[in-house]
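User: Please fill in residues for this 229-position structure.
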């Protein structure tokens, strides 16, 4: 799951990058509004953490420009606590607000709420985030994958790959997109890494079971879906 952090305070940006990476996200960082806008327009992020006060163009202006083109969820960070500033931000299209200084755990919780709102998920009680298709299910918080009641042993990367397929189920994902979203690299440098990883994942999630969920679409990529047989 790929996030963009736009924050000009280098130490805070690095702290967020490190923390979110440890939580299993792929994180891009921009230190100015212009770089942030460029990245936000160029790539498809699941969510953007956006500081309000930035050099060049500020957070609200970046948000206004972004909203002309995209509805990527945006969590704004602000040092300001004035009500009217918050209202302006929310009217400008921010999805949520967090006032500095904040605890990382609160940032993470709010990110998870926004991602849950944005995605087709099944919710099962408190603070769990579950994605599923047929008898295959993953729990993003507990990082567990289960098919037909059987626990699947996945590596961190296989888990991220499966989460991507589940979030975008029914959609053919190109190798280029998979490389960007899961490995944070360009397909050119990925060579056959993607194919090998998908094959390994398929052996684990489909191998022991009757129905295949992860399909190859020749010349295009891969799709996770339940097909009529
Ligand atoms: Ca700032």
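Assistant: Residues filled in for all 229 positions:
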């Amino acid at each position: 799951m790929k996030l963009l952090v736009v924050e000009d305070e280098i130490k805070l940006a690095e702290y967020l990058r490190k923390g979110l990476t440890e939580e299993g996200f792929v994180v891009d960082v921009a230190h100015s509004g212009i770089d942030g806008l460029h990245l936000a327009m160029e790539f498809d992020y699941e969510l953007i953490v956006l500081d309000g006060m930035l050099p060049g163009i500020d957070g609200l202006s970046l948000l206004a420009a972004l909203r002309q083109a995209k509805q990527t969820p945006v969590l704004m960070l602000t040092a300001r606590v004035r009500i009217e500033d918050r209202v302006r931000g929310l009217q400008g299209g921010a999805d949520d607000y967090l006032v500095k200084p904040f605890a990382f755990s609160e940032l993470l919780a709010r990110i998870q709420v926004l991602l849950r709102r944005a995605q087709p998920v099944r919710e099962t009680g408190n603070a769990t985030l579950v994605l599923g298709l047929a008898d295959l299910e993953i729990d993003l918080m507990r990082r567990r994958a289960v098919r037909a009641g059987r626990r699947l042993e996945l590596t961190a990367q296989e888990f991220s790959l499966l989460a991507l397929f589940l979030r975008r189920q029914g959609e053919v994902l190109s190798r280029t997109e998979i490389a960007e979203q899961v490995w944070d690299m360009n397909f050119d440098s990925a060579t056959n890494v993607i194919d090998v990883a998908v094959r390994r994942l398929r052996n684990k999630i489909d191998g022991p079971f009757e129905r295949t969920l992860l399909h190859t679409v020749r010349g295009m990529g891969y799709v996770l879906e339940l097909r009529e047989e």
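For context: Residues 104-118 form the longest helix (15 residues).
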